[in-house]
Each structure stands twice: as structure tokens, then as C-alpha cells.
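hey can u check if this looks right to u? its 194 residues, i copy pasted from the old doc so theres a chance i mangled smth
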Amino acid sequence: MLIAANALLQNGFERWIFCQGMLFQSTDKWWGDHGRRDYPHEGIDLCLFRDRGGKIRRMDETTRIPVMHAGVVKAMFKDYLGQAVIIEHAHAGCDRGRFISFYAHTKPRSEIQVGTLVKEGDIIATLADTRHSKANILPHLHFSLGLPSESFAYDRFVWNTLRNPEMIILLDPLAIIDGRYQTLDAANRDCRAL
């Protein structure tokens, strides 16, 4: 849906590109000093793609963020690059009957508020403009998926909630992303240049 919402195929999209630090549970940074993260990565970071000409291109603050599945906006908060939007989805195929999707480093649309019902494919945000961030990091979508516990409370949801396995079991989102992808080695020059 991210590909379609941003007409990436018309712009030559061939596959997503991930540097090692962009992947679920990575302990490495893909920006700045490329050092170690304080915590393993809680999701995936989407920002790079290869076009049919072989050039690596990046998404920017005009990138529109669609919802992956119908649900309800249950929480929103400021993160260090923009805002995070947390959506709860009912799903009979899950053991718990529900799961959450977490879209971070965004600029939500004005009509997106806690309690808003969203349909699959609805545009909820654009990427946050990160040019003035202290982290000196490209605009990107941090995307997490998880199964919340029975005692999970949205009114206290903050980033560290994702790191608490008693509150939420994180899932690797790579299995459900749109399109083909390629992972580059951390030493790759394109990754080192980020």
C-alpha cells in the first residue's frame, strides 16, 4: 500500500532497500556514527528503494503513510523525530483477537485523532521533516507490529512500551511489507553514506 499511495511504481520502484540497522531486532544504527543502538530495533525503518535503473532513491517528507488494515487510532504521542500513531486492529486470526500497528516519525493528518476509525489504505500521515533533528537522520517510517497483552493500556503508551514483552509481543514486519526487498551489508557504501 505504501508503494501505491506514493505512486512509486510510476517512479521506477523495483525493490525496498534495507541497511542492517533498519531491520527488526538490529542492534546497530544506520545513521550518524553507525554505532550501537541502546535497545534492539523494535520494527523496521522504510526510507530507501532501488529504481529500475539501479539507483537508490529515498522517501521524503511528502511520502504519504497508509494504514495497513482497518482499525481504530488508540494512541498518539510525540517521538524524537515527529509523532507516532498507534492503531488497534481486530483480527480473528490472532490468538488475542487483536494486534497493533505503530507508525512513527510522522506528521499525522489533522483529522487523525485518538478514536478515529480508519479503513485499510486510508492516509493517516506523511513522513516528518527531519532536516533539523539532532540525530541528523533521513525522513523514514518506523513501522512496528505487535500483539498487546490483556492488561495493555493505551493511555500510558510511550516508546518504551514497545520494549516491554509483558505488555506487547513484537513481530517482524518484514514479512508483510509491500514489494520485493534487498538487505545491504552494513559496510555497503550506500549504507555508510546515510
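The radius of gyration is 16 Å.
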